[in-house]
C-alpha cells in the first residue's frame, strides 16, 4: 500500500535483506538439526528393529543411541570419561604444539634459504608419502609405551601439513609487494617480518588446521596400540569386553571434540585474517 | 660539454644497457633529468620503459653503464626513491592508514606520529574517512590514491611511477592526473612517469622521452613549453599529439614487420 512499486524479493541480493538472512540462517540451522535427528532415528530404528523384530544380527553389535548416551553417563559418573578425554587432549595439544612450532620454523627457514631447501625438500618428499601409522610400532619401541611415544608420534604426523603449507605460503609472496616495501626503505629482516610473514599467514593457518585434524586422527590409533588412558584406549578396552556402547561413545566424543576445536580454530582464523573479508559496506 | 654542466642533474643515466640473456632490452640510454622535473617515458609495449624505471628504482642493475641519483650510483632501492606500481602493490593485511604509515613506521616513528602522517597524506589524496578500510574494500582508483599517498608519506625526492593509471577508467584517470600535478607542484619532486598514453604524457610532462623498440632506446626527447593547466583540445596540444603519434607508430610498425 505505502510502497508504490513492490520490489520482487529476488531483485535484492539475499545478503542485503536482514530478515531473510536470519530466516535463511535459521532454515540452514534447522536443516542441520533435522539431518542429525533423521540420522539418529534411522540408527534407532535399525538397532531396535533388529533387536525386537528382524533379529538379523546379535543385538549387542549395534546398541541404540540411548544406550550409548547411558554408557556416556555411566562413564562420566565414574570419572573415566573425563580422565580419557583429558589424556587424549593433553597428548594432542602437546604433540600438535611441537609440530606447529617445528613445522613453521623449519618451513620458514626452508622457504627463505634456497640451499636448505635443496637439502631438506628431498628428505621430506621421501618421508611424506609414508603413512605416519607405519612408524607407530617403531616409535613405541624407541620411546616406550608412556606419553613420550604418543606425543612424538602426533608431532611427527602433524609436522608435514604445517611445514608444506608454510613453505608454499612463503614461496608465493607477490614479488611486487617485496619491491614496494623495499622502495619504502625496508631492510631484509623488515621485508621478512612485515611482508613475507603476513603474506604467508593464510597458508600457515591452513596448515595448522590440517595438522590439528591429523593429530586427532592419529592419537586414537596410538592409544589402540599401547596406552592405559585416552579415548582410543577407551574404545579398545571396551572391545575386549565387548561393550559396543562404550566403543561408539568413544567415537562420538572424538567427533564432538574435533567439531568444537574446528569451530574455535575457524574463529581464530577469521580474526587473524579479518582483512580478507571483502565486500563493501 | 653541454648545458648539463650548469644545472646538475638529479637523475643521470649514462650509457645504460640491459640484456636479459641474449635479448637486448635497452641499448645505450643516456638521459639527464633536472631536479623537480616531470619526465614521461613513452613508447609501445616491450620497449623497455619498466626496465629503465626499475633500474632507477634500484630493483635491477644495468648490464652496462650507470644510473646516478644525486651523483651517487644506484645499487638497490632506497626510501628516497618512492615507487608507484600499476598493480597498486598495497599490503592487503594493512588498512589504508597503515599502508600509508608503512614508511614512517620503518623509520621508527611513534604510533601517534604514524597515524598523524597517515591521516595527513590520505587527506592529501582525497581519502579522509577511509583510514580504516582494507585494500580489498577499495576501488581501483582509491587503491592507487593510497599507493600514491604511501609513496609520498616517505617524502622522497624522486617519485617513480610505472603506468600508475593504466588500469583505471578514463574519468578516474583524468582526475588523478590533475591531482598528481597539483601535488607535484606543491611538493616538488623529480617525477619519472611511465605511460603508453600519448595524451597522458602531454598533459603531465615537462619532458617526454619517446622510446624506440628492438632494441629499446631513446628515440626522441621532447621538451614541452605548453602552459599549465593544459587543455587537451588546445591546437598546440593536438598538434604535438599528432607528431608523437607518428613517432610511436613508426616504432609499433617496426614490431609488426620483424
Ligand atoms: N626479467 C626479464 N627477463 C627476461 N626478459 C625481460 C625481463 N623483463 C623484461 N624483459 C624483456 O625486456 C623487454 C622490455 O620489457 P619492459 O617490461 O621493460 O617493457 P615495457 O616498455 O615496460 O612494456 P609494457 O608497456 O608492456 O609494460 C621486453 O621484451 C621484455 O620481454
Ligand atoms: Mg612496463
UniProtKB/TrEMBL annotation, chain A:
Q: Which PROSITE patterns match?
A: ABC_TM1
The answer on whether this UniProt entry bears the keyword Membrane reads yes
Q: Which positions fall inside the ABC transmembrane type-1 domain? A: 85-265
Q: Does the keyword RNA-binding apply?
A: no
Q: InterPro entries annotated for this entry?
A: MetI-like (IPR000515), MetI-like_sf (IPR035906)
Going by the UniProt record, its keywords in alphabetical order are:
Cell membrane, Membrane, Transmembrane, Transmembrane helix, Transport
Query: Per its UniProt entry, which superkingdom is the organism in?
Result: Bacteria
Alphabetized CDD domains for the sequence: TM_PBP2 (cd06261)
Q: Where in the cell is it found?
A: Cell membrane
Q: How does it sit in the membrane?
A: Multi-pass membrane protein
Transmembrane portions of the chain? 33-54, 92-114, 126-145, 151-170, 191-208, 214-235, 247-265
Family membership noted in the UniProt record = Belongs to the binding-protein-dependent transport system permease family.
Q: What is this protein called?
A: ABC transporter permease
UniProtKB/TrEMBL annotation, chain B:
Pfam families attached here?
Answer: ABC_tran
Q: Which Gene3D superfamilies match?
A: P-loop containing nucleotide triphosphate hydrolases (3.40.50.300)
Report the PROSITE patterns cross-referenced here. Answer: ABC_TRANSPORTER_1, ABC_TRANSPORTER_2
> What domain of life is recorded for the organism?
Bacteria
Q: Which residues form the ABC transporter domain?
A: 11-238
Under CDD domains, the record lists: ABC_NrtD_SsuB_transporters
Question: What molecular functions are annotated in GO for this chain?
Answer: ATP binding
Checking InterPro entries in the record gives: AAA+_ATPase, ABC_transporter-like_ATP-bd, ABC_transporter-like_CS, ABC_transporter_ATP-bind, P-loop_NTPase
Give UniProt keywords alphabetically: ATP-binding, Nucleotide-binding, Transport
Q: Which PANTHER family match?
A: ALIPHATIC SULFONATES IMPORT ATP-BINDING PROTEIN SSUB (PTHR42788:SF13), TAURINE IMPORT ATP-BINDING PROTEIN-RELATED (PTHR42788)
Concerning its family, UniProt says:
Belongs to the ABC transporter superfamily.
Q: What is this protein called?
A: ABC transporter ATP-binding protein
Amino acid at each position: 500500500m505505502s510502497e508504490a512499486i513492490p520490489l520482487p524479493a529476488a531483485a535484492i541480493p539475499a545478503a542485503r535483506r536482514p530478515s531473510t538472512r536470519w530466516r535463511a540462517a535459521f532454515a540452514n540451522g534447522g536443516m542441520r538439526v533435522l539431518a542429525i535427528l533423521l540420522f539418529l532415528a534411522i540408527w534407532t530404528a535399525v538397532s531396535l528393529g533388529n533387536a525386537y523384530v528382524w533379529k538379523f544380527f546379535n543385538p549387542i553389535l549395534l546398541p541404540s543411541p540411548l544406550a550409548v548416551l547411558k554408557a556416556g553417563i555411566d562413564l562420566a559418573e565414574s570419572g573415566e570419561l573425563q580422565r580419557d578425554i583429558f589424556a587424549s587432549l593433553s597428548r594432542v595439544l602437546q604433540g600438535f604444539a611441537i609440530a606447529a612450532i617445528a613445522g613453521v620454523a623449519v618451513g620458514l627457514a626452508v622457504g627463505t634459504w634456497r640451499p636448505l631447501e635443496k637439502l631438506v625438500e628431498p628428505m621430506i618428499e621421501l618421508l611424506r608419502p609414508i603413512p605416519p601409522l607405519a612408524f607407530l610400532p617403531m616409535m613405541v619401541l624407541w620411546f616406550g609405551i608412556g606419553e613420550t611415544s604418543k606425543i612424538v608420534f602426533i608431532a611427527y604426523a602433524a609436522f608435514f601439513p604445517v611445514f608444506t603449507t608454510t613453505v608454499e605460503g612463503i614461496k608465493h609472496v607477490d614479488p611486487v609487494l617485496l619491491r614496494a616495501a623495499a622502495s619504502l626503505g625496508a631492510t631484509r629482516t623488515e621485508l621478512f617480518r612485515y611482508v613475507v610473514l603476513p603474506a604467508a599467514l593464510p597458508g600457515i593457518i591452513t596448515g595448522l588446521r590440517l595438522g590439528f585434524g591429523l593429530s586427532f586422527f592419529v592419537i586414537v590409533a596410538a592409544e589402540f596400540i599401547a596406552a592405559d588412558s585416552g579415548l582410543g584406549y577407551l574404545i579398545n578396552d571396551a572391545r575386549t569386553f565387548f561393550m559396543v556402547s562404550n566403543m561408539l561413545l568413544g567415537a562420538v566424543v572424538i567427533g564432538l571434540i574435533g567439531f568444537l576445536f574446528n569451530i574455535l580454530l575457524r574463529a581464530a582464523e577469521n580474526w587473524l585474517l579479518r582483512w580478507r573479508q571483502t565486500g563493501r559496506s | 660539454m653541454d648545458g648539463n654542466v650548469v644545472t646538475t642533474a638529479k637523475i643521470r643515466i649514462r650509457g645504460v644497457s640491459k640484456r636479459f640473456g641474449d635479448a637486448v632490452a635497452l641499448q645505450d640510454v643516456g638521459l639527464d633529468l633536472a631536479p623537480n622535473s616531470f619526465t614521461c617515458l613513452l613508447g609501445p609495449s616491450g620497449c623497455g620503459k619498466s626496465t629503465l624505471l626499475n633500474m632507477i628504482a634500484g630493483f635491477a642493475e644495468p648490464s652496462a653503464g650507470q644510473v646516478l641519483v644525486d651523483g651517487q650510483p644506484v645499487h638497490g632501492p632506497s626510501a628516497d626513491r618512492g615507487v608507484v606500481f600499476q598493480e597498486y602493490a598495497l599490503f592487503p593485511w594493512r588498512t589504508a592508514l597503515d599502508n600509508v604509515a608503512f614508511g614512517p613506521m620503518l623509520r621508527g616513528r611513534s604510533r601517534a606520529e604514524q597515524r598523524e602522517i597517515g591521516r595527513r597524506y590520505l587527506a592529501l589524496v582525497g581519502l579522509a574517512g577511509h583510514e580504516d578500510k582494507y585494500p580489498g574494500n577499495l576501488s581501483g582508483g582509491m587503491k592507487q590514491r593510497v599507493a600514491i599517498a604511501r609513496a609520498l608519506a616517505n617524502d622522497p625526492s624522486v617519485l617513480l611511477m610505472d603506468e600508475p593509471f593504466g588500469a583505471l577508467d578514463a574519468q578516474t584517470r583524468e582526475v588523478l592526473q590533475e591531482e598528481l600535478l597539483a601535488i607535484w607542484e606543491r611538493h616538488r619532486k623529480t617525477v619519472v612517469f611511465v605511460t603508453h598514453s600519448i595524451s597522458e604524457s602531454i598533459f603531465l610532462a615537462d619532458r617526454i622521452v619517446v622510446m624506440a623498440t628492438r632494441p629499446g632506446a631513446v628515440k626522441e626527447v621532447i621538451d614541452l613549453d605548453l602552459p599549465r593547466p593544459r587543455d587537451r583540445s588546445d591546437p598546440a596540444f593536438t598538434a604535438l599529439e599528432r607528431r608523437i603519434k607518428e613517432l610511436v607508430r613508426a616504432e609499433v610498425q617496426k614490431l609488426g614487420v620483424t
